[in-house]
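May I ask for a sample protein chain and its fold as tokens?
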Amino acid sequence: MPSQAEKIIADNDFVSIWLEESGNPAIEELTQLNFELARKTITDLAEKGITEHDLALILDINPEEIKRWLIGKHPFSIKTLKQISTTLADYKV
């Protein structure tokens, strides 16, 4: 069950609202790609036994930022993708 804060964020997701109204295909494609990257990252973390909090510590990033990436509320940057990719590649189970 979403928290009150999560509900407020979801109800005020201006990017999603704008996309619904404008229907910009380039932004929709980028958004979809970001969701796919988030799903893949979640899967890879689970396979390696790494939690979101562990990843935040490894990357020295606020855990809330990790959460925003993984739920698709904040896009991945190229730098972030490289950091996550390197971390997952180097991490031994």
